[in-house]
Design goal:
Layout (H helix, E strand, L loop, with lengths): L1 E4 L6 H4 L4 E3 L16 E5 L5 E7 L4 E7 L7 H17 L9 E6 L8 E6 L2 E6 L2 H5 L1 H10 L7 E4 L16 E4 L6 E4 L2 E4 L15 H10 L4 E5 L5 H8 L4 E6 L2 H14 L6 E5 L2 H7 L7 E4 L11 H18 L4 E7 L6 H15 L3 E7 L18 E7 L1
Parallel strand pairs: 1-3, 8-9, 13-14, 13-16, 14-15, 16-17
Antiparallel strand pairs: 2-5, 3-4, 4-5, 6-7, 7-8, 9-10, 11-12, 17-19, 18-19
Helix pairs in contact: 2-4, 5-6, 6-7, 9-10
Length: 393
């Protein structure tokens, strides 16, 4: 194992167990023959060993896997996966009426660079670092061997998540098993999960708890689900006995997925209608009081800090357009999944929209990601999902 030495004073964040080593913290020269994705050791400027991690080219040079000197082998992954599954079992996420959940959430499960979502017998694995890409076969074997998890198929989906400069040419494909059906169950509702061609791992399991909260508020309401993707919020609103549910997405494919999931759970139910249309244009055409429960769950407006200002303007504009059209006594669920946008910044953008609308607005709930997307207490950057439930007079 090659050793990377830090510049003087650059070990402070690591001594607080933050798992990232930035490239500017490394002393020159780097070891000869160092390859991207390689397991390396990191030590202070005085030679004190700090941790073991994966090296990569970029601003984050090392993702620490363990704050000790150890082998990153099958036993390491077996241990971490077992620990992650124990947390999900403690949360009661694997049960007859629920077999969709996140098993590994990167740094939150002490496996930086790795995401694993479970859909019944299929695990969908995403690598976000070259090191995890090289470990994919070991990870797949340990997943299938993990007692009680019940996984027999492992699908690798990292074509869009790995840094393109690494030139890894990842291929989305089954590492173990094969396609054996795409239906998963979340809180008793059935969903078709398109992990082959869909966004992320095929479904946004991070909104599970927030979808349940929406169901609670849906009875008798006219619901509008913007940026619906697979229609998760729409399906929950239907079960919540909404008067009508309209789903909007700019993607025809997303609308097809939404309609399929509505039909899977509520065949022939005429309360639902979908629209393949741009969200801002739809809101512009929307009549005053057409809806009294609206969900705004857009894709990330800012994937990098350089886009932060425009993103905040986008959130303000989107929320204002909804607020000015909502009926009196409406509920607004509004979200940001942009990691670059802080909770305070998102709240300020929504506050600005509220002030612009001139409406009386109360905060009923402040929302975040569910417990199977844990935040490593030493890595606050892992908290990415922000949401507010507002009462609009």
């Amino acid at each position: 194992m090659k050793i990377l030495r830090l510049k003087k004073g650059k070990e402070e964040s690591l001594d607080r167990f933050h798992p990232w080593v930035f490239s500017g913290a490394l002393a020159e020269p780097l070891p000869d023959g160092l390859e991207e994705g390689e397991v390396v050791g990191v030590e202070s400027s005085t030679g004190r060993f700090i941790g073991t991690g994966h090296f990569q080219i970029g601003s984050i040079a090392v993702r620490i896997l363990d704050f000790s000197q150890r082998e990153i082998d099958a036993s390491f992954f077996a241990e971490r996966l077992k620990e992650a599954f124990a947390v999900r079992e403690a949360l009661g996420l694997k049960r007859p009426d629920n077999n969709a959940f996140r098993l590994v959430h990167g740094e939150g499960d002490f496996l930086p660079g790795l995401v694993i979502d479970i859909y019944g017998p299929t695990a969908v694995v995403q690598a976000h670092s070259p090191g995890m890409h090289y470990c994919r076969d070991i990870i797949a074997r340990e997943l299938v061997g993990l007692e009680g998890l019940g996984v027999s198929n492992v699908y690798y989906k990292s074509e869009t998540t790995l840094p393109f400069k690494a030139r890894l040419d990842p291929q989305n494909d089954y590492l173990i098993g094969e396609f054996s059906g795409s239906e998963a169950i979340e809180n008793g509702l059935r969903f078709n999960i398109d992990w082959l061609r869909g966004q992320k791992t095929g479904f946004f399991v991070d909104q599970r708890d927030n979808r349940s909260l929406l169901e609670h508020y849906s009875r008798g309401r006219k619901v509008l689900n913007m940026f619906c993707y697979t229609g998760g919020f729409s399906v929950y609103a239907m079960r919540g006995d909404a008067r009508l549910v309209h789903s909007v997405d700019s993607s025809e494919k997303a609308i097809t997925l939404t309609d399929a999931n509505i039909s899977l759970n509520f065949p022939g139910d005429t309360r639902h209608k979908s629209f393949a249309e741009d969200a801002f244009k739809f809101l512009d055409k929307m009549g005053d009081g057409d809806y009294d429960l609206v969900v705004l769950d857009p894709p990330a407006f800012a994937k990098h800090r350089s886009a932060l200002r425009n993103a905040l303007r986008g959130y303000q504009k989107l929320n204002f357009k909804a607020m000015e059209k909502l009926a009196k006594g409406s509920i607004l669920f509004t979200f940001s999944c942009s990691q670059a946008v802080s909770r305070e910044q998102f709240r300020l953008a929504v506050f600005s929209a509220a002030a612009q609308s001139g409406r009386k607005i109360r905060i009923l709930h402040q929302l975040t990601q569910p417990a199977d997307h844990p935040v490593n207490i030493y890595h606050p950057e892992g908290e990415y999902l922000k949401g507010l439930v507002l009462y609009v007079e």
